[in-house]
Amino acid sequence: MLTMMMSIAHRITGAALYFAMLLLAWWLMATASGPNAYATVQWFMGSVIGRFVLFLCTWALLHHLLGGIRHLIWDLGYGFEPNEREWLARATLIGSIGLTLILWIVGYMVVGAS
Fold first, then answer.
1. Which of 39, 41, 58, 103 is least surrounded, with the fewest CB atoms within 10 Å of its CB?
2. What is the CATH T-level fold of the domain 2-109, as seen in this structure?
3. What are 8-39's pLDDT values in tens digits?
């Protein structure tokens, strides 16, 4: 059951990352357009909603990455036993949440919460 949910989550995060690229494109176009456009993007990204969206994008990226590693392990012919599948699914979920939190905590410690 958990393996099935992680498979669905892997597909959803892949689709979410497609839309996250729109944020990256918006930021790059604003950077090229000048200070006013860049300030608008920076204001949005610095808002509570913008930071929440960036947090979710970070989680989606890491979850999709770890899900891809899980699929690579399967492609190599390992991890097909029931307990191994469950362990890999749990590791994907816990690892993506943990890595997201660590990345954001380190980011705030290095860059600051300005």
1. 39
2. 3 helical TM bundles of succinate and fumarate reductases (1.20.1300)
3. 999 999 999 999 999 999 999 999 999 999 99
Q: Which amino acid is at 86?
A: E
CA 53 to chain centre: 10
Q: Is 82 left (phi over 0), alpha (psi -120 to 50) or beta?
A: alpha
Instruction: Report domain extents, the chain.
Output: 2-109
| Single-letter residue type at 34 | G
The whole-angstrom separation of Cα 19 and Cα 57 is 9
